[in-house]
Amino acid sequence: MHFLKKNKLNTVTITYWFLLIYIIAALLWWFIALTNQINAMADMRIAELNKDEINYTQKVEQILSIQKRKTTQYIGEGITFLVIILIGAVFIYRATRKQIKFGQQQQNFMMAVTHELKTPIAITQLNLETIQKRKLNELQQYKLITNTLFEVNRLNNLCNNILWAAQLEAGNYYTKNEEINLSDIVLGCIEEFKTRFSNRTINLNFTDNIYINSDVLMMQILVNNLLENAIKYSAEHSIINIDLIKDANKIKLLVKDNGIGISDEEKINIFEKFYRSGNEFTRTTKGTGLGLYLCNKIVKKHNGKIVVLNNHPTGSIFTVTLNAI
Questions:
Q1: What does the angle CA 196 – CA 270 – CA 194 come to, to the nearest 5 degrees?
Q2: Half-sphere exposure of 289 (CA within 13 A, CB side)
Q3: Measured between alpha carbons, how far is 243 from 17 in angstroms, rounded to an integer?
Q4: Of the candidates 42, 64, 89, 214, which lies 20 to 30 Å from 233 by C-alpha distance?
Q5: How large is the C-alpha radius of gyration of the chain?
Q6: What CA–CA distances, in Å, run from 71 to 48, 81, 270?
Q7: How are beta strands 316-323 and 250-256 bridged, if at all?
Q8: What number of other Cβ atoms are within 10 A of residue 314's Cβ?
Q9: How many Å separate Cα 174 from the centre of its chain?
């Protein structure tokens, strides 16, 4: 299927260039034909003149002047048409390629979200059926219930991301901005992730009582997606470091991992909707391509800035800068 998608893009590109070359060739043919016609008419008019006339030279000059003026007019019109055609061609080419790639990303998203939805539902169903059909001791029940809650949280986060992406894109979500304690929100998100991923080490370096004018749910989604991204793309034994600091009237949230890192080429695209490196058939990490897109949308909604830098020796550092109260 990946080959078919690439082949479709190649077909569109070849067709586009063929039509563009044909249009430019037709424009050149039109210019040459008109130029030949002007020259022929000028020669014919000069041939009709009587060389013995007193003002013969003056009439020839008038005919040549008209010929030159017409040629200049057609050159100007031709250049204008050529510029308009090229500008329109570039716009259409970029828009078409963007639409095809976006369609491919949407298809990848549908395959990814189908898998992401089916997995927690299947695990939850299996756990509940096990509790229902078998007599388990208290410890076994606790493990199954904990695992079920973990999968339900995954499902809830996925649904929240999809709904928020749709609402933010359509502009239908109205934030309830109020003075909130960002330090408490970050601490709460980290505690939840430590419970969900008990084998991971998450270190927090933060200042108490950092306040921001924002929406609680928005900030939770922002922090959760950055943490989930760091966990997904780093090894189980690696450490994730979170820094929350206030510098003058700016708040900085840094999420550092020692994972696989992000190439310079991909850093431009990672905040795009549905974007994920590779494809759904070779990718091993879970996700839908909405997490970082939502982070970028939320940060921009707060007139802030989010950037990704290389961590050393490996990994990435996501830095969010927001305005403090």
A1: 10
A2: 24
A3: 51
A4: 214
A5: 32
A6: 21, 15, 52
A7: antiparallel
A8: 14
A9: 23
